[in-house]
Write a structure and sequence with these properties.
The structure is a single chain. The protein is 12% helix and 43% strand. The chain is mainly beta. The chain has one domain. It has a six-stranded antiparallel β-barrel with strand order 1-2-3-4-5-6. It is globular. The protein starts with a strand and ends in a 10-residue tail after the last helix.
């Protein structure tokens, strides 16, 4: 299985880290920080202006710096139904 990874920024330290996407929808993105038994799941929700997704894991705020429109476009590409594009 090929896990999708995204880069998020920890606002407190400005450190960029790569996390695994558990589920991705336009309204929320669930990510898993870490691996194995010490992993932590976090839900990222869109900001009121829709320019980023934010969440909190273990008291630290993390930010995925892509807009709601960009995530919607990513989802359309990922979920494209190739059966509709065949020649008739």
């Amino acid at each position: 299985m090929n896990d999708q990874k995204i880069k998020v920024r920890v606002t407190e330290t400005d450190m960029v880290m790569e996390v695994t996407v558990f589920s991705k929808r336009e309204g929320s993105i669930e990510v898993v920080l870490g691996e194995g038994v010490h992993s932590v799941k976090c839900e990222l929700l869109p900001t009121p202006n829709g320019m980023a997704y934010v969440g909190s894991a273990m008291g630290r705020e993390i930010v995925y710096e892509r807009s709601r429109d960009e995530v919607r476009a990513d989802l359309e590409i990922e979920n494209h139904d190739y059966r509709d594009s065949r020649r008739r």
